User: Which sequence fits this backbone?
């Protein structure tokens, strides 16, 4: 991997400033879109692998990373317009899109709104219909368990990272220098000298309200080539829970969450019967990191066929 040609830059579009990374390359444009909470830097190891055949970029959406944090605009229509104006600014007429997690909403919505500007779509464990997810998650038995947590006041970036790893063991398992760089763009230091999330709670709440509760995927009338990955692994839980509590979560995940997830895959395939579906048993949500070679090989075949 060679990031020597990577460019970090900003565009002023749609009334805000958005950050993006450009790894260069020649050929069709390939744009990566992030999951909720992440910035373009999350793709800094994976994306450059495609620069031999494609011009590769990644966009950091509003309310994330180094982009602006406006008080409004966290709905599918506005986020889609952000992407469109980003392309206009860089004189990109048409692109292949690869989106992780929450970006599944943007992929489908953009394809429905601007089908002539989409060449192919790649969903990286990226659901585009999350209407029932809050209801499903309310059945998570760990939500009912009150855990006394120590006050988190990290005064160094290293302390912030340590707290993140402790709270998210699934992320800790795939930690690398990539995550150190990514996290450095997700945090800031407040007036008390404490490292905190850059994304305010109000932004997260608006995104959940606009892209989860009641949002139905927009109809895509154009037949666009689609590749969709689904990771089926059970997330590891923090050691603040007992083994019995972790076991109850595993049962919930296998008996409630997974069947729901499989129903969404079937519904997605019904809407897009031509899509290629790749299931990853024991896969990680960040499959392009944890199962990098498998995802890379499947994407490569799909992109050049």
Assistant:
């Amino acid at each position: 991997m060679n990031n020597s040609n990577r460019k970090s830059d900003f565009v002023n579009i749609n009334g805000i400033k958005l950050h993006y990374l450009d790894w260069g390359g020649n050929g069709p444009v390939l744009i990566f879109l992030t999951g909720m909470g992440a910035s373009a830097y999350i793709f800094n190891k994976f994306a450059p692998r495609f620069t031999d055949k494609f011009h590769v970029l990644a966009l950091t959406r509003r309310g994330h990373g180094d982009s602006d944090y406006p008080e409004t605009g966290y709905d599918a229509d506005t986020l889609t317009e952000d992407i469109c104006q980003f392309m206009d600014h860089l004189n990109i007429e048409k692109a292949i899109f690869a989106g992780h997690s929450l970006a599944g909403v943007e992929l489908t919505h953009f394809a429905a709104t601007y089908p002539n500007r989409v060449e192919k779509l790649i969903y990286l464990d990226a659901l585009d219909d999350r209407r029932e997810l809050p209801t499903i998650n309310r059945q998570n038995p760990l939500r009912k368990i009150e855990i006394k947590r120590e006050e988190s006041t990290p005064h160094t970036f290293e302390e912030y990272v340590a707290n993140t790893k402790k709270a998210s063991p699934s992320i800790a398992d795939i930690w690398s220098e990539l995550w150190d760089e990514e996290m450095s763009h997700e945090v800031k230091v407040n007036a008390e000298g404490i490292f905190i999330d850059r994304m305010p709670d109000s932004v997260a709440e608006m995104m959940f309200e606009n892209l989860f509760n009641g949002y139905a995927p927009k109809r895509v009338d154009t037949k666009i080539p689609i590749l969709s990955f689904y990771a089926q692994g059970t997330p590891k839980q923090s050691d603040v829970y007992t083994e019995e509590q972790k076991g109850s979560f595993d049962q919930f995940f296998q008996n409630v969450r997974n069947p729901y997830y499989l129903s969404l895959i079937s519904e997605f395939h019904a809407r897009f019967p031509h899509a290629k579906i790749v299931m990853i048993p024991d896969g990680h949500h960040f499959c392009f990191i944890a199962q990098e070679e498998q995802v890379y090989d499947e994407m490569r075949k799909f992109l050049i066929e």
The mean pLDDT is 94.
